[in-house]
Predict the structure.
Amino acid sequence: MTDTPAPRPAPLDVRPVKQPMWKRLSLVWLVPIAALSISLWAAWQNYQDRGTLITISFENASGITAGETVIKYRDVTVGEVEDVEFADGLTDVLVHARIDKTVAPYLDDDAVFWVVRPDVSVRGITGLETVLSGVYIEGNWDTDPDVAQYEFVGNEEAILTRAGQRGTSVVLRTGDGGSITAGAPVLHKGLQVGYLEQPELSFDGNQVVVSAFIESPYDRRITSSTRFWDTSGFSVSFGAGGVSLDVSSIASLIEGGIAFDTVVSGGQAIRDGQTFDIYPDEQSARDSLFTDPNAASLQVAVLFEQSVTGLTKGSEVRFQGIQIGEVDQLNAIVVGEGASAQVRLQAVLDIQPSRLGMSPESTPEDALALLSDFVARGLRARMVTGNILSGTLVVELVQIEDALPAIVTQASGQYPVIPTTDSQISDVAATAEGVLQRINDLPVEELMQGAIDMMDSIERVANDESTRAAPASLVALLDEARALVASDDVQAVPGDLRKVINDIDAIVTSTAEADIVADLDAAIQTTAAAAANIELATENLPELITQIEALTAKANALAIEDLVKTATDTLASIDRLVGSEDAAALPASLNGALDEMRGFLEEVREGGAIENVNAALASANEAAQAIEQSVSGLPALSERANQLVAETRAVVNSYSERSRFSAETLATLRDIQTAADAVSALARAIQRNPNSLLTGR
Amino acid sequence: MGSAGTEGGLITARDAGLVACQRCGQVHAQDALYCKRCDGRLQSRDTESLQRVWAWLFAGMIAYIPANIYPMLLTSTLVERSESTIIGGVVELVEYGSIGIAIIVFVASVVIPIGKFLAIGYLAISVQRGSQDNQHQRHKAYEVVEFIGRWSMIDVFVVAILSALVQLNTIATINPGIAAVSFALSVIFTMLSAQSFDSRMIWDVNRTAE
Ligand SMILES: [Zn+2]
């Protein structure tokens, strides 16, 4: 206590001279300063490194969570969602996200974003990891920094073509997008080499347009002569080649798909975004290779006299077996005027000049000139059977040897007309008709005509005055002739022949009139009988012919001219004779012979059949031979006809069976189709809502 | 001096001309510079005390800011990856219905540190202003602050244990976040701050006011 007064002044003095604040500062202050500066530096650094804020608007932000959902670029996280909110008017969901500063400059107008969700499709399952980890936003942009953007519109679907992916994108057009879905494969020789993007309606709404991406290096296969066709589902075609069932990959069965091929070389290289048409099937795609759909075609008309049943719009037009065009229109037109007016069936043919082997630049006029030239050299149009079962017809341009001269005319109206020739319709009925036609064509008429001619000559001879005034030798000859004519053999000839002809006539009329197929058997049998008759008749012919030849020889031996001459010479005396009583007493035998002859001739003539046995007996001989030949041909012919009938019957039977078969086939195919539709619907449902597979709903 | 002693009913060592060794408690005469027992430096009053208190306190408060902003736990499981801050964790616990645990965490991580800041700040200010009020209570508060300081580390221990135990690669992993470090630093700085406080000054008001 005593100390206290002593030290007291000292502290008082010391206090004011306290060391300045900064000298008394404790080193400990460094700690908060360091802490503060570290904090500030970290904050500043954080602020500096903070990503660029971008906004992506989505229609549906399901699964996106602020602070959790990340943004990935090529599977590397480059940003994170900071906030999710609605746009004004609740139209869209705005997702605000921070993107790494290093990446942000690349987000230019080609940047796209979409939400990756689990996706189950027939091509596989994608985005499965997001089932557990939650969705994320994937972005895609190319590697060229451009004007950076900060607001984007998110895609609803993942894009298929990544920016920078190597390949070629082409635009495909089709009239019907029913068989196309996004992601469907593009096949080349059965391999998937690309895929389709989302199909869209074209600007004018008439077509469906879809981008297809063909991966490198397959895109090098595409040239301007490449054709794309639809391979979706399966196709059943029932054509001349039989039934063909075409199924592509299972994926394309359900999702649809497009295939392409480049069959011809020489196409030009394509640029990105070139437009191609999708053909309904491979065949039409390949056919189209020879056609430039934009090339002008030549239209010519063909006038047919007979029915064009089986010819339709679109029927092929062939030239030497190659399709050069198709039937464009079918209509009836009136040809001529007044009494000569006729209705003809006009087929307008659409001919592609390029398919005629002309250069692609050639115009329809060039093609017409070429065709006119061909026509002048015998080119004709005709209908031929394209498919014997369906009875479809095609128009064929064919070179006819020894054709009657004709030219391409402009007569019928607006189209030049190509002359026609007989059609070759291998119709069942037509074939049967052909058989009968050949029977009809047997040279019976010639034979008859020859016989008539001969009888005429004989009559002329007989009627000749000089013959009447023939000497006794002639009388004797006539007697012989009478005897011959009167002989049973000759008398029998007209009857036999008439019978044969009547039979044949009956056959021809009955077969022609009656139901050909049904009566064909009967007709053939009758024909066989007729043939037997003819054969029988022919058996007698050689004998007859010998006799006739003998007669002719005798007649020839008479040297008619000389005879006539001498007859003329003797005419005077005959005249005299006529005047005399001898004339009246003309040998009764001659008169009788002439009468008989006349009667015979009358009979023959009335029979309307023969009146025969030609003056030129050689021709009778020929006729006989012809008959013999045809008769010998007849059995074969009838056998063919029989066969034909049998075949026809088989065809008809099997056809009716087959129609049941095809009905069943079609029903089955329809079932398959329904099943495929159901699978397809399921696949689409799953694609629309992949969660359903996972949640079972 | 006498008045001081009489007023508070207490006589300080300084009033008695003595100085106690802070380490071993040996009492020396006021002018002694070193403890004769433990050779420790003797100081009747630590004149730098308040400076250090404030310095450590500021450091602790600065460190406490990132401790709350940044995530404490980085939990990644097969399904998700989450980061939880202190407050976020408390809110989550409340949402899950674990009110008790939430309270413990909240008290240990928020109430205690902030209470410590306030308490130390209050003590330092009151000493600076030479307040004469509640000297006993203030001294008790100081004792509490010093005692409770080590328990503030409970959060850090939890994080450390979890991080050490839950390392199951892809299935579940827990890692400490920046906040854990910040929080630990904050607690340490606050403890240092509390320790820097020379509680003897609470009783010096009369002298300084004199
Ligand atoms: Zn000591």
Remarks:
- Chain B touches chain A at residues 1, 17, 47-48, 51-52, 55-56, 58-59, 62-63, 65-66, 78-82, 185, 189, 196 (CB under 8 Å).
- Residues 47-209 of chain B form a domain with the Butyryl-CoA Dehydrogenase, subunit A; domain 3 fold (CATH 1.20.140).
